[in-house]
Automatic annotation (TrEMBL):
This is Arginase-1-like. GO terms for molecular function: arginase activity; manganese ion binding. One of its GO terms (cellular component) is cytosol. It comes from the Eukaryota. InterPro entries: Ureohydrolase, Ureohydrolase_dom_sf. The lineage of its organism: Eukaryota, Metazoa, Chordata, Craniata, Vertebrata. Gene3D superfamilies: Ureohydrolase domain. Belongs to the arginase family. SUPFAM superfamilies: Arginase/deacetylase.
């Protein structure tokens, strides 16, 4: 299948990129406000505890852990139309984009640990601002391409790809190195 060969190629590129730079900067973004379920904010700490830093070191990488970002509560974050918690999600992604730019300006390959799906907006935007040639590998069980008018829930975690396509299309040539794999299509 073409999709899986593309996935294999993308992992090869990422591994080559790690070995080329030899320095990895890890940012943790323990954020969960773009949806209502508790738990995703613990993901970054659990991934660290599972040995991610050690694995990078075994691959010969120098690792700089930039720590966990702190997200302030946004009082009275009322819905805008059908969108839930838009201000909290927007501020979190602005903070994350700046943190990614810092990691990149330090010369590191950035690895962002979330958090939830809406953080892709800040992670990819931060990379795009730091480097005009951008490769994106999007693997997900859900399309995450709803828009504010098509979302069945109002949760922004189902929409980051639509925002990214809209925002990045006019600024960067992001589609040249873009692989989109919608896993749900393969398991149903």
């Amino acid at each position: 299948m073409k999709s899986f060969s593309g996935l294999r190629a993308a992992f090869h590129i990422f591994r080559r990129d790690l070995h080329h730079h030899h320095c990895v900067g890890i940012i943790a973004a323990p954020f969960s406000k773009g949806q209502q379920r508790d738990g995703v904010q613990r993901g970054a700490d659990l991934i660290r505890a599972a040995g991610l830093v050690q694995k990078f070191k075994e691959e010969g990488c120098v690792v700089k852990d930039y720590g966990n970002l702190t997200f302030e509560d946004v009082p009275n974050d009322e819905p805008v139309g059908r969108l839930k918690t838009p201000r909290a999600v927007g501020r979190a992604n602005e903070l994350l984009a700046g943190a990614v730019q810092k990691v990149k300006s330090d010369g590191n390959t950035c690895v962002m640990l979330g958090g939830h799906h809406s953080l892709a907006i800040g992670s990819i935007s931060g990379h795009a601002a730091s480097r005009h040639e951008l490769s994106i590998l999007w693997v997900d069980a859900h399309a995450d391409i709803n828009t504010p008018s098509t979302t069945p829930t109002g949760n922004i975690h189902g929409q980051p790809l639509s925002y990214l396509i809209h925002e990045l299309h006019s600024k960067y040539n992001t589609y040249k190195n873009y692989i989109y794999i919608y896993i749900h299509a393969y398991i149903h």
